[in-house]
Amino acid sequence: MRTLFPLLRVAACLLMSTCFVLSSSAEERVYELRTYTTNEGKLDNLHARFRDNTMRIFERHGIENHVYWTPVGEGEDNTLVYIISHASNDAAKESWNGFREDAEWKKVAAESEKDGKILSKRPDAVYMEPTDFSPQNFESADEPRLFELRTYTTAEGRLPALLKRFRDGELKLFEKQGMTNVAYFTPQGTPNTLIYVVAHKDEDAMKKSWEGFRSDKEWQQLWENSTKDGKIVIKVDRQILRPVDYSPLK
Length: 250
Prior knowledge:
The protein is an alpha+beta fold and 250 residues long. The protein has seven helices and eight strands. Residues 1-26 form the signal peptide. Keywords: Signal. Belongs to the NipSnap family.
């Protein structure tokens, strides 16, 4: 999916300082979803490293910081989830190579682990491309919100039907119920997956929004029409996330 942004979106972005600058190359901007799991008692050390140094060094190497979260519930004591972006796939490789070889980063990493290794395993990384309907609404609210990171796996060949459903009405129905559409992505190399982020005022608002959405007659009709040719979604994974204090997006 390389031609993701229609000309109207480009024109709109030229008028909005909050829009991302599109890559001047033929490749579209690439987003990266990363999950870090720490050893017991080391999450604060990881936060300190990102807050004081890592984000700044990322930017020096052309990596754009968007949002940093910790889970609500399972993983809240040892997990950091974040989204960054690169100008292209090639730029991502160059940026990561530069970051790993950065003298300041090497010093920061060594000093931060004097009392023991921070990460318990290698980070998980998913490279993603925005869908043509993704609002890319990486703008902070006046107060921190609660976020949902949702991953839908479709039946074989049914991703286009899911994307059409979101494009044709599901996003508007989310908004109708008080949700904020943040971003929608398809991961590279995974043909049957949609990853998206929505935001809520708080946990009560999230619960109320989903209850209203499921009982909405317009949604029920949209779902029925979209599944006439067979089931679309076969698996849903969901994480509830809170932004950390140093996250650009809150």
